[in-house]
Model the fold of this input.
Amino acid sequence: MPKHIGLDLGTSNTRMFVKGKGIILRSPTVVTVDKDDDRVVALGREAKMMIGKTPSNMEAYRPIRNGVVADFEVTTLMLREYFVRTESLSLFNRPVVLVSTPENCTEVERLAVENAIFAAGAKAVGTVKSSLAAAIGAGLRVNDHRGCMIVDIGAGMTQVAVISSGRIIKSRAVKIGGDRLDNAIINNLLTKRNLFIGEMSAEMIKVKIGAAVSGIDRGACDVSGRNEKLKCAQSVRISTEDVYGAIHTALESICRTISSVLESSPPEIAGDISNFGIMLVGGGANIVGIAELITKKTGLRVTVAKNPMDCECVGIGRLIERPSILQDGILYKNR
Done:
């Protein structure tokens, strides 16, 4: 019997669900490849630690960008390695895979995801919209006539969707997420302190002392990098307010996107959302103060889902176990 697998291919992290076992893999979407023989040298956390530190014959890739395939060959190598390591792929057994795709995913981008999974060894591939999967994983009653709104702040993008009767009524995706916040921190330090830091350092700062609203004090931390003016190594101390100053513009853009989707929703559904609020999922839901910021900008109650980073994968898993959750079901392509 083939294994039934659910894949959440995120820009930052990949999660894998196996029917009967639950989520068995949570790993950074990074792979280090030996360029001489296209061999996977490191995967996941080990590969992430190698970003910016690889020798000349190796390169650390982030093959998924904004939820779609940015590098087909590397994505295939990564997925095949995951399938083998989780014992989902063998000579006589090929997995059946259900994968989520973003709201603004084009037909070409969706086919690239499917083809990469087939090339990695899958027997059949089905797709589901990521907002629907996340809503199911967060416990929303997607088949009700009552409208609901879900906001998924990922690493590569933020997706806002209004759902009713098992379908997405209105949606919008913007390429603003955790990576944009990290870049904002990098650019802010370079502009104001002449200090150039890497992606890993920026992410550490965001997680450790970042806040979405002014006035929250999460302390301060030291960060090291290269002084671009003096051309030497340097360490500086930054505060929560410094981080807020760097990221608040991007966060306000997310709030404007939420407001625009609300304004374009049918009035009856907008009324439902006004009564029941917004569900917040994704890695960005863990930013301290983000729910308060969205409430301040929209006037609506915001609920952060339990385990917000797992919601999409949990929803994919529930669809594998009970495809009837969606009225239209799931269609699989075979190869």
About this structure: The radius of gyration is 21 Å. Residues 160 and 258 are 6 Å apart (CA to CA). The chain has ten helices and 19 strands. The chain has two domains: 4-132+312-334, 140-304.
